[in-house]
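ok trying this again, last paste got cut off
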Amino acid sequence: MHFGRPLLRGPAQVMFLADARTGAVFCAALATADWRYGVYALGGATLGSGTARLLHVPRQRVEQGLEGFNSCLLALCFAVFLGVDRLSTALLAVVGCAVAAVATAAVVRLLRVWHLPPLTLPYCLLASAVTVAAPGFRRLWPHGDSLAALPRAASGPTAPRPGDLWRAFFRNVSQVFFLDEWYVGALLLAGLFLASGVAGLVACAGSATGVLTAWALGAPTARIADGTMGYNAVLVALALCGVFLAAAPATLLYALLGAVTATAVTPAVAHLLAPSGGHAFTWPFVLTTLGFLTAARSFPRLTGRIPVPAA
């Protein structure tokens, strides 16, 4: 097989698309913030997919990029949070991406019992583990003091200005890849529309829902504007409308309800993880999507199937 195309599909699969062109646009978008971010993303996908091939994971999974997106996120996560210019970060990313292939296989096998997708659960598990452990290793943690802190009540103004809103709309997309540059989000959206107009529109709806939900609940303007409140909403909307459930008006409403839920869950997860720095990663997306997909089996309007009554 032509290995270049599956590698580019890895970054694209972060947003559920098996389109090499979208993966190329995603890597280019990340490179506009820092060229090394694009290298880490593509390199992570390469290492994850390569390890999976060496371990004889089914060829179709590798070709579709399904073995590359968790390692892509993990490598980029290390670059952003541990320092993109550090040799220790690069070495940790190499090892972490190989482990991500093992973690992906374990999660796939575990969730197959309930016919559920692995999503970004392998990445979340490894990223959380490294975040907790990193301050204990001086060669890994360049920031001096630990970021651990007790949860605090939200503070600051809660009335966003128009400029905050449109930046939040795009940053909700860029924060999927840990970046707060609004133009990165705009380029990522362009990559989505390149592959699928439906996916692009659903992502826009998810982002807008995340912004409105955070504002309605009184989230601080700074948290809304930097995209950290709404990026999980984008992923949930995409997953529940057009990926794991067919795109339709009913599933769109269901997906947006999921986006609302993920936005509300985000600070809860951040508070639970406060002792390790409060990085929610994509845990809200994983928890919300798995819950909503499980529940969807009881709703024929969403799946087209009549549920079997419990014995």
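PB: full thing came through this time. The chain has a mean pLDDT of 90.
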